[in-house]
Amino acid sequence: MKKKSKEIEKHKKHDESQSTKSMKRMEKEGPKEIADHIKKIAMDIVNDIEAGKNPRFETKLRGRGNVLFDEDLGIIKLGDKSSTRTFLNIAHARKFMQTMLIMAQTHEYLTHGKTASIREIYYELKHTVGKTGENTFEDQRESDAAIVDLEHSIDTIREKLNVHANPKGTLYGDITLIDRAHHNDTFNCLKLGRGGWSIMSRMEPNEIEIKSVNADYVLVIETSAMYERLVEEDFARKNKAILIGTGGQAARGTRRLIHRLNVEYKLPVYVFTDGDPYGWYIYSVIKQGSMALAAHSRLLACPDAKYIGMTIQDIKDYKLQNVTEKMKPMDLKRAKELMSYDWFQNKPWQEELKMAMEQKVRIEQQALANRSLEFVATEYLPTKIKNKIFLP
Amino acid sequence: MASDKKAIKEKNTKEPKESATILTAEALAKEFKEHSVAEFFKKNMQMLGLYGKVRMLTTIVHEYVTNSLDACEEAGILPEIEVKIEELGPEYYLVTVRDNGPGLTKETVGKALAQLLAGTKFHRLIQMRGQQGMGASGCTMLSQMTTGKAIKIISGTGKGKAFACELAIDPKKNEPKVYNLKDIDRDFRGLMVQARFKGVLYKESLMGPLEYLRRTAIANPHAKIIFRSPKGERIVFNRTTTYMPKLPKPMKPHPAGATVDDIITLSQVTKAQKVSSFLKSEFDRIGDTTIERLQKLVNFDLNKDPKKLTWQEAEAIINAFKQIKFIAPSTEGLIPIGEERIKKSLESIVQPEHVCTLTRPAKVYAGGYPFQVEVGIAYGGKAGIVSEEGSDEESKKNNVLDVMEEQNQGVKVEIMRFANRAPLLFDAGSCAMTKAVHSIDWKRYGIKDLENIPLTIFINFLSVHVPYTGAGKQAVADEDEIMEELRLALMMCARKTAHYISAKRAQIERKMKRDIFYRYIPEVADALSKITKKEKEKLIKKLEQLVLTKLKIEDKEEEDKNAKKVEEEGEEDYEEEE
Question: Which residue among B518, B530, B546 sits closest to A49, beta carbon to beta carbon?
Fold first, then answer.
């Protein structure tokens, strides 16, 4: 991937303007634009058919071979390699058919203002073809793959296709949202009780509008327990913070919301996870994006997010030596992998990972309770934020 | 059966029990004779192929049918043989075999059917089926031993009156006993033998009489064979040719393959006065030049009386033979079935989709024995045998390219071995023919797995002297020359089969592909029509046209590729031949 970074260097200027342009377009694209885009692809295919040509559509090549880290944008993105799916190829025919079905169905959603979960669209489209007992989709994995195909083909995210995955993640803080897709409900997320607001899968501006935000930063928290601790300590009010609980790996909707708060409202984003390879990876996905969704980093990633903790240094600084956990072989292997990723190639992270591997320890967020329950809210976080003690 | 056996016998050789006197003292020989051949037979049934309840019944059928075929052929009659097996009780059967041959006379019937080792093929180098087993007299003996009953005969030569009688063997004297001989006042030509056997078992297995007859019919396309099973079914194997195979000529032994024992044995019966003329008259490819060379190599006079030849002298002759280069033996004695006739026969009886056959030129093994290989490969249809393991669910998983295997579920290769047209049903594992089949890389011929394919492989091994591996005479020894020839024949034939299989594979794949595309077309057309509002039916039609055009082009490419591939492989095969 190093090599690829250099390649990018070469085409830097061109690439930058291209990226910014397409990013802006992607941000702006609404249901009508997406529906038109789908229609254009369909028309191209129909034209192929009528001209006696092998029907085809272009989609981006996925997988590691076409994933690269854009150092300038600070995000993981998909390379330029594209692949052509043709109908008259026995290996493609079934996928081609499946993608056509997804296209027609999402086109229908977009033109009629409907939305569906990926499970619903699977059931809506599943039926037998011919007399062989073969189904359009044998399981949801197949329809999911066809959705990914379409996402990559028209360069957008499924949420913009009015299709979504299971929601996960909670929002708490002084932020007012308007649900444009549902009675224009308007609500402030500091007034919804301790449960906060369940972040939806589709967090597109045309559906969920951010009316106003009164906060200094966004704090993203990995574990639900820590999220609840901070709500209970009234951390959001006392520190003018927006709290977002991810409950493990952040869902697409949650990542989209963090991205929007970061981009639209220029709020700093601090990520607070367990001090272990899993936690660090959660951070890296929020910051640079993931390989699986490399094509959508521009809509999901927050390149200037900062890592607040837990760090191995914290163990020493906060005298947590007796509440660490041992790293298992899997953890060590994972840490070694992280060390090799392009986006972890900076001194502070290399040192952090090295320390973790040397000491073979990991530290959970809840370990801070060893000092006192409120310690995290009164001491740990405010001090770190005040003194800007972050990992990049 | 074998009416003229006696005549040939007198001309060619002498009674084998007398020839046993050569190596032993006269007195000892007499004592040996007292110890009757029949007694010996009783104690050594397994040596004669008489063990295993199923195998015994098959061997019985083999003996009678073989005799019938030989008799008919020698008399120039197209054979029509009816075999009937009736179950009389548990492991108790009545076997009736009737042919349309020349029949036996009252004088010959006893010797032919009730005297052990009275056969005529024993000391002749001639390609004949009945080199194995115990002979029809052995069956008489077996019947007698297991049931205490004599066998029943009806015989008619077509001229004069037919007659019926009952036959048994006097085991002490090894002499026939004839009972109830009477003339019959009706037209009857041929021979009917009826015998009872206990301790045998009828089974419709790969080693049973039905399979034996089926294979006999395949290798003898000029014969019509009718079988009535104990279940009362009547199964007819019709002849597919009226061409009578040429009668094989007796062959003189070739010196390169001769043994000391051969020399001693033949020297005792020769009419020649000198060893030199004895060798010239009794052996193939020996003339005056050879005798001259030979005289220089041995230290005794070749003009001596052959009857006085000692073992050491015979040994010296054999050693000298090894230093002399002889012309390869004549192959006149070999009578192949012929490619076309094997093909027709397999088509009629196996009923495959495709057959290709090959008759190789005669070759020589062990320096002196001519042999010849014929191969037939039948593919598809009813070829192959049902595999007992059943179908493997895992390999059934849908994979476009494995479509052929899917069709072949539960059928595996069937290897039909024949020695001089007689089916070999037993000891398959140790036979050169089986080994040759398994030594070939079938994948090269588009056959992925012999355990999973409708394939029948026919191999006929012809020789005046079949090198059997054991006394059961059911497996051919894997001599180098034989293996090479078998492999070559199989590969050449397999290549033709490969052509067919690849063409068929392409055809099936084409259809599979078309089906897949056609299945998806309405879905694709429907989706596109929903988005673009174009007419669905028109899109379907246009897409179907596209598919057909595309597949046509692919076929052409595939064909060209295959033709090239097989051509290349062919060249390799021929290289091996050199």
Answer: B546
Sequence-distant (≥ 6) Cβ neighbours of residue A110 within 8 angstroms: A31, A32, A34, A35, A38, A161, A162
| Residue labelled with tokens 């070749």 | B302
B439-B445-B448-B454 Cα dihedral, nearest 10 degrees: -90
Fold of A2-164: Arc Repressor Mutant, subunit A (1.10.10)
Cross-chain residue pair A39–B545, CB shorter than 8 Å: no
Matching residue, tokens 């959660």:
A282
Return the pLDDT at A38: 94
Annotation says A123 is catalytic: yes
Q: Based on the fold, state whether residues B279 and B228 are members of the same structural domain.
A: no
Whether the Cβ atoms of residue B422 and residue B213 lie closer than 8 Å to each other: no
Which range of residues forms the domain containing residue B560?
A: 502-577
Domain assignment of residue B244, yes or no: no
Collapse the DSSP code of A325 into the 3-class scheme (helix H, G, I; strand E, B; otherwise coil) and give the result. strand
Identify the CATH number of the domain in which residue B24 sits. 3.30.565.10
Q: Domain containing B300 — which CATH number?
A: 1.10.8.50
CATH topology for the A170-386 domain: Dna Topoisomerase Vi A Subunit; Chain: A, domain 2 (3.40.1360)
Q: What is the mean pLDDT of chain B?
A: 82
Residue pair B243/B222 in contact by the 8 Å Cβ criterion: yes
Which of A310, A334, A194, A170 shows the shortest CA–CA distance to A244? A170
Does A94 sit within 8 Å of B516, measured CB to CB?
yes
Q: B530–A129: do the CB atoms touch at under 8 Å?
A: no
Q: Clarify whether residues B62 and B41 are in a common domain.
A: yes
User: Edge-to-edge strand order for the sheet containing B80-89?
Assistant: B175-184, B162-170, B151-157, B189-198, B92-98, B80-89, B224-228, B234-237
CB-based contact, A107 to chain B, within 8 Å: yes
Predicted TM-score (pTM) above 0.80: no
Looking at chain B, the whole-number percentage of residues with pLDDT higher than 70 is 80
- Does residue B81 contact residue B62 with C-beta atoms inside 8 Å? no
